[in-house]
Amino acid sequence: MTALLIGLGPLLGWGLYPTIASKIGGKPVNQIVGSTLGTLIFAIILFFANDLTLPSGMDLTLGIVSGIGWASAQILTFKSFELVGSSRAMPITTAFQLIVASLWGVAHLGNWPTMTDKLIGALALVLIIIGARMTVWSEKKDSANTNNIKKAVIILAVGEIGYWLYSAAPQETSITGMNAFLPQAIGMVIVAVVYSLVVAVKEKENALMQVVSYKQIISGFFFAFAALTYLISAQPNMNGLATGFILSQTSVVLATLTGIWFLGQKKTPKEMKITIVGLILILLAATLTVIV
């Protein structure tokens, strides 16, 4: 029961994170500044509370690169929220992450070694694509809406490079996820500060001086809570990597539904039914990708 409750931490953290960030408001630059500061504060508290040691050398570098990857991708994800809303963007980015993680596992980590594994894995990837397409289906065809969805898909596809770095870089180190957490947070803040300075030069508005940026620290706490509980959940004496990953992916359901319920991202009854079926397909596919 304890392991299950911890495993559901990412459901709450990552499920509520995009909705809370959107609800607090501000531009993507405000959202990324606050989110990364919240994550850094959380990581520092965790670091000292558990008497952890800061990695050095290449381990430290890859940890920071991991955080840079996440923050860069998250900026693009926030931009996609502006185009189609979090309820449509989250299933798409989740689908991209599942596809890339699966293909990376096959190509680099030796996952899906048998032909049966590969066939089941390929089926899972097809289900992910179908499920993601269903979540953005619109009953009323509108050229502006269609163009926004296309733009959002392209933005999220580019952003997936960053999410891949976030997951892949720590795998090349000898440190635990707990020890990688602070370096990741440092990398995230580096991106946020650089991005805010670039925006300040272009738009004459410094996000570091705006109150809404610091309100977004709250959303950062939710992200950090999810990341931490996922690290604990994935440990062998808890749920293990496979089950922990599946439980973490349930966050897409909460992120999508709360976006619809609390942010006014309306769907018709028919669109809602198709969206729910799409989410179920994505979760089923996530399950398949980790049991083969």
From TrEMBL:
A family per Pfam: Sugar_transport
Keyword Hydrolase: no
Record GO terms (molecular function): carbohydrate transmembrane transporter activity
Keywords: Membrane, Sugar transport, Transmembrane, Transmembrane helix, Transport
Protein family according to the UniProt entry: Belongs to the GRP transporter (TC 2.A.7.5) family.
NCBIfam families named among the record's database cross-references: symport_RbsU
Name of the protein this chain belongs to: Ribose transporter RbsU
Organism of origin: Vagococcus bubulae
Lineage of origin: Bacteria, Bacillati, Bacillota, Bacilli, Lactobacillales
